[in-house]
Amino acid sequence: MMIFFRYLLILIFLVPINSFALIEVDISRGNLAPLPIAVSPLSLDKESKNNLKKLLKKEDLGSEISIVVENNLKMSGLFNPLNKDSFLQKPDIAHLKPRFEDWALIKAQALITGKVTVIDEKLRVEFRLWDVLAAKEMMALAFTTVPSNWRRVGHIITDKIYERLTGEKGYFDTRIIYVAEEGPKTRRIKKLGIMDQDGFNTKYLTLGNELVLTPRFNPTNQMVTYLSYFRNLPRVYLLDIETGIQEVVGDFPGMTFAPRFSPDGKKIIMSFAKDGNSDIYTMDLENRIVERITNHPSIDTSPSYSPDGKYICFNSDRSGYQQIYIMKSDGSNVKRISFGKGLYGTPVWSPRGDLIAFTKLHKGKFYIGVMRTNGKGERLLTENFYQEAPSWSPNGRVLIFYRETKTDEKGEGFSAKLWSIDLTGYNERLVETETDASDPSWSSLLSN
Amino acid sequence: MTRNVIISSTFHLIIIFITAMSLPFLTKKPIDLPPIVSVELIQIKDITSIPFAPKAKKIIEEVKKKEKLVSEQAPPKVVKKEKPDAVPLPDEKIEKVKKIEDKKQNPEKIDNKVKQVSEFEKEELFDPNNIAALIDKSKEDVGETTDKPNKISQDQDRTVDNIGLSLSEEDALKAQIFGCWSIPLGLPYNENLLVRIKLKLKPDGSVIKSEILDHARMNKPGQGFYKVLAESALRAIQLCQPLRVPTTGYERWKDLQLNFDAREMLEG
């Protein structure tokens, strides 16, 4: 018997087994078309509807919040919100349990549903993000706030959806500070303006009596630094947006300009010009100690910290032409990184740390571009008659800058507008402002 | 003792005999693999493209006539033999030649002629206005070749069982998924962005089961982007199904692994 089993074992090993190796197929390309997404209007019960009518004088806040979300997603260039007319399911039922076949039928790959209620004069907005193809819920959150904050709720919802679907933080619950401009080009009134990133809720922070330039947000809080003229001398100021208190940063005998915060918000880095020479200085905001970073007979200006605070990029004409340089934060190891044709200016380090945005002037045209921190991989994103001052969105995906138009023969037709462009260079959009605008600066996420 | 010796030697002899007899048999039968002959399988259509017999006969006659005409024109002796009345006028002659040339341009009838002329003449025969027709023809050819896998016999099927997808099969599948996969553009391009998904497929290409091979990575801290990428890959599979798989050889592709790699796209 044992012998039989032995033979049987040998036979099993000898008989060839018809096995198949697993076939592998490498998918290294995909489409970059915006993701089709259905943003269903948020449902609203009768009682909440009446309450909101009294509180905000809004007929259908659910729809309006969904429009905020939809516009944000559309502006990002990564999503394609589908036309609401094609939706087959009612918002309240869809929020309970979507009929995924209906949403797949209109080619939606993701679905957003939600519900708005008012409890004790507090607004409660809940939303759900659904994966239509996998027929499952991806995320569900609820926010409670004062009713007047409804637009912000829309932005926060968009941030959450954006992060869940793209893998990076959003940039929708943010604000933009800029120089609002009015009047003819020769007698321009310039004041500080602040608005939500989508152009709503504009407020003016200065009256326009003094010329203001280069406002920059503190990355950690709602503090702003900017340049204003005092007795015909440019001075760097600090302004707390929440309290409205402003102060001069130090008392320098010469001009101070191009201020910017350090990533931890504790220092200001700026240029200080004296006797025709400008160098880079930092000032500690706690003890007001000023430290000189560069010491060179050339013009060094537009400093910007790397997100870890270890390096600084700036522009200098020490090589004879205006180029971009990087150095350690103590001023050592200065290294030129831009070697292309033309002049380079306004370098800004990306919040992600991988790129430096800049303005380039070449053959009479202005370009907004990006390069890696070692100067390689230069990419020009947009070209125009005059444009400059790029500022990064907090997630390092989008740049906002301003663009001026030519005046005609009569000296008319001049305008300055804010524009945004993403890193692909394809999604270029005008950012609507009440007045002409220049020198934008993007805040960090407010909800952090 | 002697008995034992006899038995032993008898057995030894038997063994030697069997060995001597069987070894040549083994050596005589070497593994004789037939050379691989490539066979083009032509699809037999219901309607033949060969001209109807009487028409074909006519064409053959015309070809013969043309050959005759050339030979008649070549030797001067033939012209001498003809009666003055029967000699065609120069105009008529040209017309006759023209007629044949016209027929040459008929694509139905030109086929045989083209094969007979030299390479140099082939170039002359090429008609730029006829490119569209040529392209159409090439399309038909492609159509025929793509139909070929359907006609693979069982024996051949067995031979291809152990190999992967052919280049064209793989390309068709890739092209389909490229169109369905919306790459999340916010992913950090300097990370490992490879998602491996194992699929179990039905014969029609629809997905029975999909499994992310590095599933544990989805819930690791700091790997949130991997989850986003894996979900996008799963969406692409859902959106694309039924997958464009070969019509034959189900056994070899019923389990399939797709490796989604976003690095190339994100690095630009």
Walk me through the structure.
The complex is a heterodimer of chains A (448) and B (268). Chain A has 448 residues and is an alpha+beta fold. Chain A folds into 2 domains: 35-166, Rossmann fold (3-Layer(aba) Sandwich), CATH 3.40.50.10070; 175-442, Neuraminidase, CATH 2.120.10.30. In chain A, 15% of the residues lie in helices and 44% in strands. Chain A contains 6 helices and 31 strands. In chain A, a hairpin with a 6-residue loop joins strand 9 (189-196) and strand 10. In chain A, helix 3 packs across helix 6 (150-166). Chain B contains 12 helices and 3 strands, in the order H-H-H-H-H-H-H-H-H-E-E-H-H-E-H. Chain B folds into 2 domains: 58-147, no CATH class; 165-267, Fusion Protein Consisting Of Minor Coat Protein, Glycine Rich Linker, Tola, And A His Tag, Chain: A, Domain 2, CATH 3.30.1150.10. The model of chain B is unreliable at 46-51, 68-129 and 131-161 (pLDDT under 50). The radius of gyration of chain B is 35 Å and the shape is elongated. Classes of the chains: A alpha+beta (448), B mainly alpha (268). Chain A binds chain B through residues 18, 20-35, 78, 109, 131, 133-134, 138, 162, 164-168, 352, 354, 395, 397, 424, and chain B through 161-162, 164-165, 170, 173-174, 177-188, 190, 198, 224-225, 227-229, 231-236, 238-239, 251-253, 255-265. Strand 1 of chain A pairs parallel with strand 3 of chain B.
CATH architectural name of the largest domain in chain A? 6 Propeller
CA(first)-CA(last) distance of chain A? 76 Å
Mean pLDDT of chain B: 65
Task: Give the strand line-up of the largest sheet of chain B.
Answer: 2-1-3
Any idea of the CATH topology of the largest domain in chain B?
A: Fusion Protein Consisting Of Minor Coat Protein, Glycine Rich Linker, Tola, And A His Tag, Chain: A, Domain 2
Radius of gyration of chain A: 28 Å
Shape field of chain A: globular
**CATH class wording of the largest domain in chain B:** Alpha Beta
User: How many helical stretches of chain A?
Assistant: 6
The major pleated sheet of chain B works out as: 3 strands, antiparallel
Task: Count the domains of chain B.
Answer: 2
CATH overall fold name of the largest domain in chain A: Neuraminidase
Largest interface: A-B, 34 and 48 residues
- Mean pLDDT metric of chain A: 89
Secondary-structure content class of chain B: mainly alpha
Q: What's the structural domain tally of chain A? A: 2
CATH architecture of the largest domain in chain B: 2-Layer Sandwich
Number of strands of chain A: 31
